[in-house]
Design goal:
By secondary structure, this protein is α+β, with helices and mostly antiparallel strands. The chain has 2 domains: 71 residues, Arc Repressor Mutant, subunit A (Orthogonal Bundle), CATH 1.10.10.10; 175 residues, Beta-Lactamase (2-Layer Sandwich), CATH 3.30.450. It has 10 helices and 8 strands. The strands form 2 sheets. It has a 6-stranded antiparallel sheet, with helices on both faces. It has a two-stranded antiparallel ribbon with strand order 1-2. Keywords: DNA-binding, Transcription, Transcription regulation.
């Protein structure tokens, strides 16, 4: 494939991810261009081509783009192989009910995590950092940090040193190489990841890895809430419950594969 063809595919997938990350609210052409680093005219041409084949839809009244029907059809086919939400949803719901916090399931997709399930907690004060479809680079949110920490050390170290400068530029000094390596080490000691308000001040996250049949960290369960609910002595208490839920889901996914 020519370089031009490879670049076009890369641009197209980047645009689809951005539209998918804003699935409920939609996204404008300018927002797509800014998020992907593409000229607005390029983003507009790619979106129009995707719309012609049904991969995205445009709300002309609001000028916002949404995933289209072809994405649903492709997703339904892919779900037969990759969808774990039917198995995971009861575990995520039970964790939320037990803790009163909002609980989530995220999946690893290359160097990112994407949120698949969001279960609101009963506590009236909530953080709104996570929602279904949102993506973060590994190591940024607690789910991605839990997954990163449980990768083979050579793989996690290579990722951290390669992506650290970009993460620092996008998310601040707390995501630079050295502090990220420190959080990875802490996650390995505790078994679960802690994000003490590093994305949005006052919004804490705890995450635990969920493993596939090969023992690889393919997903993560996380809790997200305000600092007063997740900090202090309650961090360890919630960490234990989170690890129990992650272990339960890992076991159920393994059982489902061999059923």
């Amino acid at each position: 494939m020519s370089m031009a063809g490879t670049q076009l595919i890369g641009r197209t997938t980047a645009i689809l991810r951005q539209v998918g990350a804003s699935a409920s609210a939609g996204v404008s052409t300018s927002e797509v261009a800014a998020a992907t680093g593409l000229p607005r005219s390029t983003a507009q041409r790619v979106l129009a081509a995707l719309a012609a084949d049904g991969f995205v839809d445009r709300d002309t009244a609001r000028g916002r783009w949404y995933l289209g029907p072809e994405m649903f059809l492709l997703g339904a086919v892919a779900a037969e192989r990759y969808d774990v939400t039917a198995t995971a949803r009861p575990v995520v719901r039970a964790l939320s009910e037990r803790t009163g916090e909002s609980a989530f399931l995220s999946a690893r997709r290359g160097d990112e995590t994407v949120c698949l399930i969001a279960q609101e907690g009963s506590f009236p004060l909530r953080s709104h950092v996570l929602h279904e479809g949102i993506r973060f680079p590994l190591g940024v949110a607690s789910a991605g940090l839990a997954i990163l920490a449980h990768l083979p050390p050579a793989e996690s170290d290579a990722y951290t040193r390669r992506e650290g400068p970009r993460l620092e530029a996008s998310y601040g000094a707390a995501h630079a190489i050295r502090p990220l390596l420190a959080r990875i080490a802490q996650t390995r000691r505790l078994g679960y990841a802690v994000n003490p308000g590093l994305i949005v001040a006052g919004s804490w996250g705890l995450g635990a890895a969920v493993f596939d049949h090969d023992g690889a960290p393919a997903w993560a369960i996380s809790l997200n809430g305000v600092e007063s609910r997740l900090a202090g002595e309650r961090t360890a208490q919630l960490g234990v419950l989170l690890l129990e839920a992650a272990h339960t889901l890992s076991r159920r996914l393994g059982d489902a594969r061999h059923a």
